[in-house]
Amino acid sequence: MEKFRLIKTAMCTFFGAVLLSQSATTFAQEPKPASAATKAANAEVQKTLPFNDKADFENAQRGFIARPETLTVKDAKGNVVWDMEAYKKFIDLDKPAPDTVNPSLWRNAQLNMLYGLFKVTDNIFQVRGYDITNITYVKTDSGWIVFDPLISTETAKAAHELVTKELGERPIKAVVYSHSHVDHYAGIKGIVKQADVDSGKVKIIAPEGFMEHAVSEMILAGNAMSRRAVLMYGAVLPRNAQGSVNAGLGQSNSTGTVTLIPPTEIVSKTGTEITVDGVKMVFQMTPGTEAPAEMNTWFPQWDAMWMAENTTNTMHNILTLRGAEVRDPLIWAKYLNETIALYGNKVQVKFQSHHWPMWGNKEILDYWKKQRDLYKYIHDQSVNLLNKGYTGPEIADMIELPPELNNFWPNRGYYGTLRHNARAVYQRYMGWYDSNPAHLNRLPPEKASKKYVEYMGGSAAIMKRAKADFDKGDYRWVAEALNQLVFAEPNNTAAKNLLADTYEQLGYQAEAGSWRSEYLQAAFELRNGTPSSGGVSSASPDTIRAMSPEMLFDYLAVRLNGPKATGKKIALNINFPDLKKKYALVVENGVLNYFTTPLEKPDATVTIPKTVLDSIQLGESDLDTAVSEGKVKIDGNAESFTLFTGLLDSFPFWFNIVTP
Fold first, then answer.
1. Cα-atom radius of gyration of the chain, to the nearest Å?
2. Helix (H, G, I), strand (E, B) or coil at 119
3. What is the Cα–Cα distance from 171 to 198, expressed in whole angstroms?
4. What's the 3-state SS for 510-553?
């Protein structure tokens, strides 16, 4: 009995997974109005940019077929997973930007409110505004090819119902995942059954490397990325003119059921042609651009180009604020140059997985060149300045786009920004260290902040100066100064509230939806404390099922607490009979290594089918039943397995960010 208890405890620790709550959170303190400085800053934007250019509004409404009067999507339990109505209450095409919203971001939000079913060109249709992503339908001889089926099964299903209602019922013949980010594949089971894929009735087409990157991106650093994404997307912010307005790429992310069906066909080479039910597709591989696995698609029948997420109507991220590997803007620009060379003399319509299409060869060529040159300029000029000795923060404050790029609406920074992209380029080439020895071994924030406060004359002196600078609208400096005070004195309510007020004004001025969310979510957390709900786990059921044993072991190695493991030696064999694979896990020197050759004399051997492991992780089964039915077996010293699992950390999701 004691052995079984040890096994049960160890297995739960070893294979346990947590799905987080998505319930709503409300403000304990009301947001503040726009200050005089914020009103002036936003008024200057209104005067500076070409707001008389209405081409985007014409394009965003072109080909309109239908939309429901209201759009609120719920899951099977009645929870709202997508709600355009919350935005419709305050965003309207005829309303000028409120004082609390940057006019350029307001314009982007207005455009993204144009939801519904649209005809792009002959046989190509899009449903826009049902998620942060568009879902695209290409008519074949007898059915559909679907591109990028959104984030959630619920929103994908709702979009499919709209298409069926307006265009008739047709079977889905194939689904194309343009790239490996979750908003481009995770709604798949809302429109396609696994059985139809298994039988060959539906093809799933994806770029080379799709599964590796789709599964791995949010696993190893997934907990930290998911927590940081709460700030990037303003997960708990109210939908109003003082809260969430827009995410840049679309209004927001849906929060429904995330799924994954592995591809049945992999595209690995530019020029690959695949014909599905009479429709010919020619693929252009673009790895390492917006995603590590990504591809564009050319439709020669209609001179139409699907750009995936390589060009949208915003400057994209070289480094996303939630955290990721730094992207390569130089490669990005080179692939756009290749797009121009391959299709520039033929293209008549361009469409993609976010925002609205564009028509006309001349217009599309101009757009492609300016998007290409946007990323090329950011790369080249950031590297130019770093070679002159400037650091990341200095480059971010110096770099400016030339007017022909800066005043081009699709280049505006609604999602990525010039400032944080320039710093990302510096990071890509030079890393975190700027070669100033004062920054080589800096004190961590909490320790440094206490010294800063002491040097600055104490909290009272800082608050007095901060209030004066706040009144002057010097918010960037006030944020820096008060951040020191908050980290030195985390219980100083006055400091936290003034810092929240400061972040709020910076958010009201931000052109990027992501920056606005970062500032306003930070203000929320300073006023109300770290949330306890509203986040979304990165480990969806289908992602867990898709994890290879190697990915699982890499993740366990990250979870291993090195200091606790120091001096301990543990040797385990792990057998997956359904995969016909056996592994060895060895803890030594504070490190977990795995091997594909089992050990001759392990401390213990765990035999468990991968399918049973997945069921236990997902709560579909329980360990007691699995052991009693003989599906899980441990031979040898169970205590060694318990010792091993006791060395594995569980990561807290709601760690503090804006306070120590």
1. 26
2. strand
3. 16
4. CCCHHHHHHHHHHHHHHHHCCCCCCCCCCCCHHHHHHCCHHHHH
Q: Are 626 and 585 in contact (CB under 8 A)?
A: no
Q: What is the mean pLDDT of residues 505-519?
A: 98
**pLDDT at residue 11 is higher than 60:** no
CB 379 within 8 A of CB 329: yes
Q: Which residue has the tokens 């568009």?
A: 134
Using DSSP, state whether 612 is helix, strand or coil. helix
| N-terminal to C-terminal alpha carbon distance within the chain | 44
User: How do residues 19-60 score in pLDDT, each as one tens digit?
Assistant: 343 344 445 578 999 999 999 999 999 999 999 999 999 999
Q: Which residue, among 546, 541, 536, has the nearest Cα to 216 in the 3D structure?
A: 546
Closest to 233 (Cα-Cα) out of 535, 27, 537, 652: 535
* Separation of alpha carbons 167 and 155, rounded Å: 18
DSSP letter string over 210-262?
A: HHHHHHHTTTTTHHHHHHHHHHHHTTT--SSTTS----SSSS----S------
Q: Cα–Cα distance between 237 and 219 in angstroms, integer?
A: 26
pLDDT in tens, 360-417: 999 999 999 999 999 999 999 999 999 999 999 999 999 999 999 999 999 999 999 9
Identify the bridge partners of residue 573 per DSSP, sorted by sequence position: 584, 605
For residue 281, what is the enclosing H or E element? Answer: strand 279-285
C-beta of residue 73 within 8 angstroms of C-beta of residue 81: yes
d(CA 77, CA 544) in angstroms, rounded, equals 23
**Amino acid at the residue 452:** Y
Locate 81 and state its tokens: 């997973």
